[in-house]
Each structure stands twice: as structure tokens, then as C-alpha cells.
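Our preliminary data section would be incomplete without showing what the modeling component actually yields. Below, a chain of 458 amino acids is followed by its predicted structure, encoded as C-alpha cells that our downstream tools consume directly.
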Amino acid sequence: MRNPLLVLAEHAASWRDRTPDDALAHHARRALVDWFGCLLAGASRPPATLLAAALADEAPGGGGAVCYVTGRHVPLRHAALINGTASHTVEFDDIYRYAVYHPGCPTIAAALAAAQAQGRDLDALLRAMIAGYEVSCRIGLAVQPSHYDFWHTTGTVGTFGAAAAVSVLLGSDADRTAHALATAATMASGLQQAFRGEGMSKPLHPGHAAEAGALAAMAAARGMTGALDALHGPVGFAAATSEDTGKWDRALARIGQPFAIADMTFKNHGCCGHIFAALDAVGDLQREHGFCAEDVEAVAVGGYRATKEVCDRPHAVTEQDCRFSTQYTVATLLRFGGVRLAAFALERLADPATRALMARVSVHVDAECAAAFPAQRSAKVELRLKGGRVLTRHQTTRKGDPDAPLSDQDLSDKFLELTTDAIGAPAAQALLEALWRGSALPSVMPRVAQRPRGVVEG
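Predicted structure:
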């Protein structure tokens, strides 16, 4: 077996001057549209606002990158950190389901900052994104599913996506890109425990990954070396974070067939993706049979292990906790017809009828769903109505997955929903048009409105 790090570095470096076909470039634009929507929705919320305030004295201004939380020009690493954090805050960002990974937040945050700092155009950004997605998603494939027992893939594997993308924009050859990936390996981090309960650390994971990956690429471009067996060595990244030294034959087979960025899940609900199949099933049953929330006696959700371990939160109270609660999101869907940004407004979080309905929702591991994970994100729902009628649905995929994709119009509608309140309708529409059809990097946006946001405390 060839050294996997060298294989991936060669692939990434090829994107310095490689031209994607129209279809692949369009997939990259879809990812960019989706990411920008998530970024701007999260830029006025903690923890990104708190992180920007904490680092205000360290980023007085100056630099070619843009921090979208403050609207200031800042150094590359600062923008990557803050923007990467903001883009993961509202839990609406893309997913590479086979690696249990959100590649957009760390990869695009770092790549955009580097492209701005280097004065590059949108074509260069898209090429860097393709490289970063491919490298990091392949590494994710090599360490899953056991990696997800303890590690948050977006924080760990995301570091490689950022390093690869920034290396492309810095013009690094395969050798220096390899050293960037090697150094990124030793800085990758992100613990599952950070989002199994309360706290704001989870969005920081992709922000840290974006900054650490960018640092690794910048240092390697100047000649800093890393351990080139850092991925597959006996005490390397895979050995330290999974059950073996990596499934590299599987991960590296047929690179780019399809490209990871062309095989993405774009979220249709503003919460943890491990709940999506259940939400789709409940929503379909409600539309087909015409019952209302008051008619529901009980909902039993069978899912894979993460659905139970991460999202069985019957007593969730805070915004963060409720985004990971099957009970809260199912009850909200039944009551209000959707789980979007409005689902986590303070008045919704405290709604008495939603709270009462949460007590009727249970979660368990279903053997068939568990066996199909991670390639398939499924759920089995049994919904019992008052009067005794029982409705069931085995949801084998999620709306937004590659086999049930969101259309370009769906993505545009989602983008406008996420950004109009943040920057205003005219600016949102102009930015959307530039992302779909422009050739230059998006122009500097005005500072996102910093509206006070309360958090319900448990």
C-alpha cells in the first residue's frame, strides 16, 4: 500500500491548476451557497460573537481576510477560526454521511480566508474546496465508524480539509502539501463529550479545525516538515482515533468517483442530522393522514446508535440542547410543521404544549437501522393516535441526502431564509446571485446585525 498521506497530497496539489467540469464546479457552488447561509445565520449568535469579543484585542484589524461576525479585515487564521465557528452554530451545514462529517465549516472557512488573503478569484476558491472536501472525506472514510465513538469528525478530520484547501490556494506542491497534512494530523481534535450535554464547544470544533489546518498549510508552504506517516503509522492519527490503523484501501479506492463534494447531504432541518430520518417519517405521516399534534398519543423512534446516544434528550431546555433532542424536534414538527430557525426562538423553546408532547416521544436503537449506519441514515417510526390507530414508517433515507437531494431552488430558498434577517433582503439576494453565477469572490458584506439573543438556562 502506498503511503495514503502522499496519495492524498498529490491529489490535492493537482487542483492548483486543474479545471473542474461544469457539473463538478456547480456542485462546489452548491456547497458554497449552503455554507454562506449557515455562516451568516450563525454570525450574530454565540459562541461566534463571544469568541470574536474574546479575541478582539488580538485582531485589531489589518489583513486580507474578512471576519463576518465583526465585518473587519483580519489575518487569515483569525477569519478561519471565527467564521468556521459561526458556520456550525445553527446546525444547518452540509454532511458527508459516509464519514459522519460536516466538511463545509472547516474547509470553506479556511479556504475563503486564504482566497481573500491571497487576492484569488472564485474559480480558485472552488478548486481548493474540491480538494479539501476530497482529502478530508477520504480520511474520514478510513477511520469510521469507530472514530465516531469518541471523536467529533468535523473537528478532527476537518483539520485536513482546511490544510488541503489552503495548500492549494498557497500554490504548494505535492511535497509541501504532504507536510501540511502531516502537521494537521497532530493538531486535529474534537471530543464527542463536548456535545453530549450542555455547552458551546461544539461549534468551536470546525473553527479550530479551520485555523489549525490553515496554520499547518502556511507553515508547510514556508518549509516546515511533518511526519509523513502521521496518518497510517502505528501511533498515528488513525491508530489513535479508531479501532485500527485505517481502512485505507477502501478510502483511497477510486478517488473522485464520485467526488465527495458531488455526493453531499444538504440539511433540510435545523438540527442534528441523526434526527432527520425520524422527522421526515413523522412529517410524511402527518401530511398523508391529516392528524394534528393533539391527536398524538405516543411516538416511538427507532434509529441507529447515534440517534439514541446523541439525540435521546427528553428533558432538553436550552437552544443548543434542543437542537440535539429527538423529543423536542419531533414535538415541534408536529406542532408547527417544521424545524427551521424559528423552532429555536425563546417562545418556542418554552411552549407548554410542545413540552407536554415531548413526554410522549421515545427513542430506541433498531437493529436494522444500526446495521445500515453510516452509509444509510434511517429510522423506523411508530406513531400511535388517540383512539388506538397506529401508523408506521420505515424511512430509509433523508430529504437532502444524495439519493433525495435538495434542488438548487431548495438551496436558494434555504439561503434566503437563513440570511435575510441577518443582512437584509437586497444584500442577501445580491450575494446569492454572486455565489451562483459570479466569477469574483463575494464582496465584503456589512457587519451582521448583533441582535441580543437570550438563552434559556436549565
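Residues 142 and 247 are 4 Å apart (CA to CA). The longest strand covers residues 296-303. Preliminary results of this kind motivate Aim 1 of the renewal.
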